Amino acid sequence: MINEIPRRTVVAGLCGIGCATALTSCAAYGSGTSAPAPAAPAAPAQAAGGAEAAAAALVSTKDVPVGGGVVFADQDVVVTQPAAGSFKAFTATCTHQGCKVGDVADGTINCPCHGSKFAIADGSVTNGPAKKPLAEKKIAVAGDAVTLA
Predict the structure, then answer these.
(1) Alpha carbon distance 138, 149 (integer Å)
(2) Which among 65, 135, 59 has a CA at the least distance from the CA of 94?
(3) φ, ψ of residue 141 in degrees (nearest 5)
(4) Number of helices and strands in the chain (H, E)
(5) Which of 63, 50, 46 is nearest to 145 (CA)?
(6) Which of 38, 39, 90, 100 is the most buried (most CB within 10 A)?
(7) What CA–CA distance (Å, rounded) separates 19 from 4?
(8) Separation between Cα atoms, residue 57 and residue 47, nearest integer Å
(9) Per residue in 79-138, pLDDT tens?
(10) Contact at 8 Å (CB) between 19 and 25?
(11) β-strands 125-127, 117-119: how paired?
(12) C-alpha to C-alpha distance for 78 and 116, rounded to whole angstroms
């Protein structure tokens, strides 16, 4: 008489072997051939007591061009400088279909998916198909550091 192994046991075992192989391959991918990612800068201590670390700067004011901006897709934020010394921030998610905006150029925040454009001063739509403006985000500017508030 042949011992029968339930089909679920076989499938689960094969899945486990496949997952282990994939994880091993992923762990080995690129090992030893590329430079390590740069370490994030340490957040400066707050002036009052230094007990808590201040929020890390998102960007330096000198890195945001006047009439332009910088997209931080990972933080879902776009920082713009519509006029010298005036900084604004908006969500980096396009209101049309949720794509991340790609860049800031010629006074607009631009979505690469369907061509929507938003004004750097207030996030309003300057070119569709988006119909809603980008939501404004709160930022703080202290010295030459722009941080999310």
Answers:
(1) 5
(2) 135
(3) -115, 120
(4) 1, 10
(5) 63
(6) 90
(7) 25
(8) 15
(9) 999 999 999 999 999 999 889 998 999 999 999 999 999 999 999 999 989 899 999 999
(10) no
(11) antiparallel
(12) 15
Give dist(CA 88, CA 110) in Å, integer.
16
Cα dihedral across residues 50, 48, 148, 104: positive or negative: negative
| pLDDT tens per residue across span 25-81 | 443 333 333 333 333 343 343 344 332 334 578 898 898 999 999 999 889 999 999
- Compute the distance between CA of residue 102 and CA of residue 2 in angstroms, rounded to an integer: 62
Whether the Cβ atoms of residue 94 and residue 130 lie closer than 8 Å to each other: yes
Prediction pTM value? 0.62
CA 69 to chain centre: 14
